[in-house]
Design a protein that fits this description.
Elements: H1 2-17, H2 19-39, H3 46-78
Helix pairs in contact: 2-3
């Protein structure tokens, strides 16, 4: 059971680090699945099948982007990624004067 949780944690970390890549993969999977489903419908023209596949993939992509936004908000809210650049700033340095 511990191995499953570490696997899920590593998958979640990869998705958090590669949000746009995961959304793109989800879009590609969505359009491929939608084309496969629409191709099994015999009463539609090819152009309609392609348009429906694009619309389904677009809706799935919007849902994935909303999910990525929620994850990003949650990470910033909990402090996991509150300010990744503070390690590069010297907080003891005097302020610049004009």
């Amino acid at each position: 059971m511990a191995e499953t949780s570490t696997t899920l944690a590593s998958i979640r970390k990869w998705i958090v680090d590669h949000k746009l890549r995961s959304v793109g993969c989800l879009w590609l999977t969505g359009i491929a699945g939608s084309i496969a489903y629409n191709w099994s419908q015999p009463n539609m023209k090819t152009s309609v099948k392609i348009i429906h596949a694009r619309l389904h993939a677009q809706a799935l992509t919007l849902a994935a982007l909303a999910g990525a936004a929620v994850v990003e908000y949650y990470d910033h809210k909990t402090g996991a990624k509150a300010d990744p650049y503070t390690k590069f700033l010297d907080m003891d340095a005097p302020a610049h004067k004009d």
